[in-house]
Design brief:
Radius of gyration of chain B: 26 Å
Strand content of chain B: 5-15%
Distance between the termini of chain A: 49 Å
Largest interface: A-B, 26 and 30 residues
Largest sheet of chain B: 10 strands, mixed
Number of strands of chain B: 24
Strand content of chain A: 15-25%
Shape of chain A: globular
Structural class of chain B: alpha/beta
Number of helices of chain A: 20
Oligomer: heterodimer
């Protein structure tokens, strides 16, 4: 359970979803007007087979991102093309992309590193078997499998490290058994048996984790069961009086939104991974959605949650908008990353589908003006559903992703636009930065929002640059996950990481982290120029979320992943030194554990560990994320006392 | 008016141009000396090609990549509007209850007094004048080219802090000139307010990039805020490299001063608070064959106040242009990345919990700044170029009665070997005989020494500078000695660590000395000498081990089973070292004696006096003792600087106590501790039995009774 990229970007998916469901929604509205629709019902929401099958590998790539049918490749003309028909760019070529890849990261079409064709059974570790557990589990009706590929698929998320292992290596430790419970009760049963037989349970949702949260601890000698929630995908009810709905944890984002859309509703939670990530995973990682400005992040959406723990089921007895009853137990569950139990059922707020949706974009002369504008928008609290600011490198990359345009007119218009911005306004194409916008609401609301945002932008020399640029910007975030696979084919490792930071340090952080990455690449003798870019991707009252992409060409380097991780951790240290956080929405998992103590302090960490100790004394949920084993293994040496001293400066 | 003066000075420069010109063409030695080892002379080109076009040519200087171009007035505007200054103004309003406009005006006045107005026009005319002056003063200005290339490589990538050594006013003129010469962006320079007295020069320097800082501004928070922001904005935006002196002020003794940390802290705070990714610190060592201010320094050390800087004073001093000041060597050391230097030593995230404009540094950061400051000074020393004259001065200081040229050559040769063993860089023309090298240096310093008809080198008696009004024969002698000591001081850092071992061994009365006892003695001496010389806090043991190893390897000291065999270890080497530092120890001892003679008065506590008084009265005592021949004729003990340093060291050793009364610091001895120190000190040098000496201070008679 985890979500990659909690921001979004499946604009094309959305597009399709909306088209498919508009008719349906209209019907709903008619029904409602006729008074046929009961307020609380599950009548219209028949269970249907989940979009993701039990054998995930039949639909999804086993060693890369997304659907098997969708990928970038270099076609016979030597141009980069995207396959399949799921996305709007499917079947299109991007004439600028090859040049960009060659120029920016120094790939060469002659130098390829194809992935290994498979990891065969011989290279997959034998399962550890807890016979007592297995025989008792067999007596239940719970679906299970110890097939090699089923187990392998649930041994990893999507960090560079994990995907590289799939492409080039093998896993030392993977789950020994996969179970697919179909209800809360079956989860309770599995957890009970696990406790009884001392078997480790690792919950698995959409498998899009980018924190190594799914990796099995190599030193774990007990049997490990991967509890796949994908078959728990029902919407249990929708309550339009309170505008809430309850669903099982395994439902994936796109299914949830599609089904709610049938009733004219949505949750509005759209992390970038929403095609694959699950509701339970969002809660377990404290996910964030692209449109949080309107709908809120997962913690704002959450009304009620049920979690199965070794001690029993943890939940509140009411579904109220807020209450004062001591520390909120939901906050033990939110972001618990599978260390305390399995989230089974969740009540979220819902909203009516917005009638009007509009993309937009603003060009700024430089990144600094853009950030200042974002800050002002946040200050005035008039941010549209989404507002993101790409730096120049990312803008150029977005440009390279432009699909081939057959229309002379649009080429001509593009030329005019460019002329206007660079010549008339004097923007330097190598410095300008672009904000992408997504407005939602009624037509009037959208118009009013647009007016206000563009007015603020004008004060920072921002010029509206049309909806196409905006839409392409959002597309970029979702295709980039696919792009990494083709990058891997050409000696390039690439990854994203994110943080949150107070406004006053935002610009410095972006600058210093990028600078540090460049510097580290140089110091580590990476001979090709790395690709380093960032965007300010969410705004808050007191700060922003910043998202980095980092890629480099590793030709001539023997240990690219180790090197990548080394450099990323230097970058994370730079982030922390710059007042940034350990993570905005990716979570801690194992990859960022070493900074947890520093982040929450000794007492904070002790508190987390005490909760863990009470709820799960035998470490049944032993995925080793977050606070587990943090005290002994990492960073345990007592740091010398370091205090701020008053200074005359 | 101003212009006329300028023209006048330039024409006078022209007239004395240029005694070297004719020699250049036909002296193969000088021609080949344009490039030497890692150094390159940047003056010769100017002699051959003149300076007009040079000063007008287009300069293509690299700029810091994150820099946004600003004019000096935009920088000032930024400073006034900065969070830090606004916050300080707010605080000042609360404290002083003055209206905001008034405090604003004060801040703005501070800034106007401080800010530079660097502009290309001034820089070009400045360069024009500088070339003229340098050509008149110096034979060659050597710069290590690889160091310049490193700086060039940094300029685009990092904000740069230049930290040159500081032994002459020429330092920052030379630095700016070097940067001009190599088409590097001209540094802005933190200068003391002294120059503001000179209207024209002050104006010229301000327009060439000097900004002015008050010498002390204690608790003036507003001043601190304006100053800090002013410095930091230059660093953050990388407008220009920032140049400042880590020693705080010009060294009057040609020894390195202990580092000061205020400016360094201000300059590094932007890194600690993550405003910038990194800062590069470049140590620069500037060594002079002959220091422009040599006689001014000597008399200043004796307590004759330095003349106030004034433009007219400068014009009067222009006859100095007729003199020859030899070569200058400028060595740019390896740039240090603050990020790498502080890796694992500071945790910058501690600044996350407060706005960054509120001043604060962590104790880790303060420790680091101290460490770096010391490191910088030691790096200066490491890259100082030792000239033959420095070694001659070291020998001459020990042979005041005169020494024959041949003998001097022999001794210098020996010192050269020792210095070279200690890792000093020696500038010795290989193609000439030792004697001719010596004679050339004697010629260069003919105001200090001469060769008499018997071929014996002896001190010249010179008239003191006019402003000193000194008539006292002893002062004149002392002035000469101090002038000579300046040049010996230039190499003392090379020897001071082994010398502390040598002194301990030479003065040892038993047959053997264990390493532990030796180390105890070493530490005692280090404490005493810690203000006159620069030691890195906490590295005594490392220094000691290294020096002992060096001494045993050069057969200065003989070890058996972790013990020094004293009999075999007292030799020329250890004796030479001991004598080299004897004046310092003797000086401290007299200081101790003076302090001890302050009997507890009726109140049961010794009389507290200001530091100035203590030092002055000690000088009087020393003068008496010298006059009466009670102590060895080390006239340099009359140096107030040495006394001040000794007093500070005694304070740090707990032998002297400070007390603040009405804002003024008074000092009085901690008799018990002071007696211990004195007793201990007397074990290292031969001390005389002191007679009761009366000295007359401001017509009050103070009687000093020796108490041994």
């Amino acid at each position: 359970m985890a979500s990659k990229d909690s921001e979004i970007n499946t604009s094309d998916v959305k597009y399709r979803l909306l088209n498919n469901t508009t008719n349906m929604s209209n019907q709903m509205i008619e029904n409602r007007m006729c008074g046929n629709n009961s307020e609380v019902s599950n009548g219209g929401l028949e269970p249907e087979p989940p979009s993701i099958p039990k054998r995930r590998q039949e639909l999804l790539k086993w060693n890369g991102w997304g659907y098997k049918d969708s990928k970038f490749y270099v076609n016979k003309d030597g141009h980069v093309e995207f396959t399949g028909e799921r996305y709007r760019i499917s079947g299109s070529t991007m004439p600028g992309l090859r040049e960009w890849m060659i120029k920016t990261i120094g790939i060469s079409l002659e130098h390829k590193t194809p992935a290994q064709p498979e990891i065969s059974a011989a290279n997959i570790p034998l399962p550890i078997k807890n016979e007592g557990f297995i025989s008792e589990l067999r007596r239940t009706a719970i679906s299970q499998s110890d097939d090699c590929q089923d187990r392998l698929f649930r041994a990893h998320g999507h960090t560079v490290h994990e995907i590289f292992l799939l492409r080039e290596g093998k896993y030392e430790r993977i789950p020994d058994l996969v179970v697919w419970p179909v209800s809360h009760e079956e989860v309770v049963k599995v957890v009970e048996l696990a406790c009884k037989h001392n078997v480790v349970v690792i919950p698995f949702g959409g498998g899009t984790s980018v924190s190594e949260a799914l990796e099995c601890p190599a030193e774990e000698k007990r049997m490990i069961v991967s509890l796949d929630t994908s078959q728990m995908n029902r919407i249990l009810w929708v309550d339009e009086k309170n505008m809430t709905m309850r669903a099982e944890c395994g439902i994936i984002g796109q299914d949830l939104e599609r089904k709610l859309a049938e009733r004219g509703l949505c949750t509005g939670h759209e992390p970038d991974s929403m095609e694959f990530s699950s509701l339970g995973g969002w809660v377990a990682t404290r996910a964030s959605g692209m449109k949080k400005n309107v709908y809120g992040n997962i913690e704002d959406l959450l009304v009620h949650v049920k979690m199965v723990t070794p001690r029993g089921v943890m939940e509140k007895n009411c579904q109220v908008p807020r209450m004062s009853c001591g520390p909120d137990i939901h906050h033990f569950i939110l972001g618990s990353e599978g260390t305390l139990g399995v989230i089974t059922e969740i009540t979220l707020k819902v909203r009516p589908l917005p009638p009007c949706k509009k993309y937009g974009s603003i060009v700024f002369p430089d990144f600094e003006n853009g950030v200042k504008c974002m800050r002002e928008v946040a200050k005035q609290r008039c941010a549209p559903a989404s507002i993101r600011l790409m730096d120049n490198e990312q803008f150029q990359f977005g440009h390279a992703l432009k699909v081939e345009s057959k229309s002379i007119l649009s080429n001509f218009l593009d030329g005019l636009k460019k002329l206007y911005i660079t010549k008339l306004k004097g923007f330097d194409p190598m410095k300008l930065s672009v904000a992408t916008l997504l407005f939602e609401g009624t037509k009037e609301e959208v118009a009013a929002q647009e007016k206000r945002v563009y007015e603020i932008a004008a004060a920072f020399r921002g010029i509206p640059a049309g909806s196409d640029n905006g839409e392409r910007g959002y597309m970029l975030t979702f295709v980039i996950a696919y792009l990494r696979d083709i990058a891997f084919d050409y000696y390039v490792v690439a990854e994203s990481f994110e943080t949150s930071v107070p406004w006053d340090r935002c610009l410095d952080l972006c600058q210093n982290v990028k600078e540090r990455l460049h510097r580290e690449c140089k110091d580590h003798s990476i001979q090709f120029p790395p690709y380093i870019t960032c965007r300010v991707t969410q705004t808050y009252d007191a700060g922003a979320c910043v998202y980095f992409y980092f890629a480099f060409n590793y030709r001539g380097i023997s240990n690219p992943v180790q090197l990548y991780e080394e450099i990323e951790s230097r970058a994370r240290e730079e982030i922390l030194a710059n007042g940034g956080s350990i993570s905005h929405h990716h979570g801690v998992g194992k990859i960022r554990k070493r900074w947890l103590r520093k982040t929450v302090g000794d007492i904070g960490l002790g508190t987390l560990q005490a909760v863990k100790q009470y709820i799960d004394p035998n470490n049944i949920f032993g995925n080793n994320n977050l606070m587990i084993n943090n005290s002994s293994s990492d960073n345990s040496q007592q740091e010398p006392q370091n205090v701020l001293l008053p200074s005359k400066l | 008016m101003r212009l006329q003066k300028l023209i006048k000075i330039l024409t006078s420069v022209k007239k004395i141009q240029f005694k070297y010109k004719h020699t250049l063409a036909d002296d193969p030695k000088l021609v080949s000396a344009r490039q030497k080892d890692m150094f390159e002379d940047i003056l010769e080109e100017r002699r051959l090609n003149g300076e007009f076009r040079y000063c007008l040519r287009a300069r293509d200087e690299p700029a810091f990549k994150l820099n946004k171009r600003r004019t000096p007035s935009q920088i000032k505007e930024h400073v006034m509007n900065s969070d830090r200054v606004q916050y300080a103004i707010e605080q000042a309003c609360i404290e002083t209850k003055l209206p905001r406009s008034e405090v604003m005006a004060e801040a703005s006045a501070i800034l106007d007094e401080m800010a530079h107005n660097q502009n290309m026009g001034a820089i070009r005319s400045f360069a024009f004048v500088l070339v003229k002056i340098f050509k008149a003063l110096y034979q060659r200005i050597y710069v290590n080219v690889d160091g310049i290339q490193k700086v060039r490589g940094m300029v685009k990538e990092y904000p740069i802090l230049l930290m040159p050594s500081h032994r002459s006013y020429m330092d920052f003129l030379l630095m700016s000139y070097v940067f001009y010469h190599y088409d590097l962006p001209l540094p802005v320079i933190a200068a003391a307010m002294d120059f503001l007295g000179m209207k024209f020069v002050g104006w010229l320097l301000r327009n060439s990039g000097a900004f002015y800082i008050r010498r002390s501004f204690g608790d003036d928070h507003l001043y601190w805020a304006v100053f800090t922001e002013y410095v930091q904005t230059h660093i953050c935006n990388g407008d220009s490299p920032i140049e400042f002196y880590v020693e705080g002020t010009r060294s009057r003794t040609s020894k390195s001063y202990t580092p000061k940390f205020g400016m360094l802290s201000a300059a590094l705070e932007p890194y600690f608070k993550s405003h910038i990714p990194d800062v590069m610190v470049v140590p620069v060592s500037i060594s002079y064959d002959r220091i422009l201010e040599e006689s001014l320094y000597a008399y200043e050390l004796l307590g004759v106040p330095k003349p106030k800087e004034s433009t007219s004073g400068l014009f009067k001093a222009r006859k100095i242009l007729e003199d020859d000041f030899g070569n200058v060597h400028i060595y740019f050391g390896e740039p240090i990345s603050i990020r790498k230097y502080s890796e694992g030593l500071v945790d910058r995230s501690l600044h996350n919990l407060a706005p960054r404009y509120i001043a604060s540094l962590t104790n880790q950061e303060q420790d680091l700044i101290k460490k770096l400051g010391h490191h910088m000074v030691l790096t200066h020393q490491k890259h100082m170029v030792v000239s033959p004259w420095n070694m001659m001065a070291a020998v001459l200081m020990q042979c005041q009665e005169g020494i024959s040229v041949r003998q001097l050559a022999k001794e210098v040769e020996w010192v050269k070997r020792q210095a070279s063993n200690m890792g000093a860089y020696i500038d010795w023309p290989a193609s000439e005989t030792a004697e001719s090298v010596l004679r050339a240096n004697i010629k260069l310093h003919s105001n200090i020494v001469r060769v008499n008809t018997d071929d014996v080198v002896e001190l010249v008696s010179v008239a003191p500078p006019a402003h000193t009004k000194a008539t006292d024969a002893m002062m004149i002698t002392a002035g000469q000695h101090l002038m000579l000591s300046l040049y010996r001081n230039h190499i003392l850092h090379v020897f001071v660590r082994p010398a502390m071992i040598a002194i301990s061994v030479n003065s040892c009365t038993s047959e053997r000395l264990s390493i532990d006892d030796l180390f105890t003695k070493y530490c005692f001496l280090e404490q005493l000498l810690s203000k006159d010389f620069v030691f890195v806090p906490g590295s005594s043991r490392i220094d000691f081990d290294l020096s002992l190893r060096t001494l045993t390897h050069t057969s200065g000291i003989v070890m058996e089973l972790d013990e020094v065999v004293i009999g075999q270890s007292v030799n020329k080497l250890t004796t030479f070292y001991s004598q080299m530092f004897e004046p310092f120890l003797l000086g401290y001892w007299i200081l101790c004696q003076y302090l001890l003679s302050n009997h507890p008065n009726v109140a049961g506590k010794p009389l507290a006096k200001t530091q100035k008084t203590v030092v002055k009265e000690t000088q009087m005592l020393t003068a008496r003792l010298l006059q009466e021949g009670v102590i060895k004729q080390h006239y340099e003990i009359l140096s107030l600087d040495m006394m001040n340093n000794g007093l500070q060291a005694l304070f740090h050793m707990g032998a002297v106590i400070k007390e603040r009364r009405d804002g003024v610091v008074y000092m009085y001895p901690n008799t018990r501790q002071l007696s211990n120190v004195t007793e201990n000190l007397a074990k290292f040098i031969d001390v005389p039995r002191l007679p009761a000496v009366s000295i007359n201070i401001h017509s009050k008679t103070v009687t000093v009774n020796a108490k041994l």
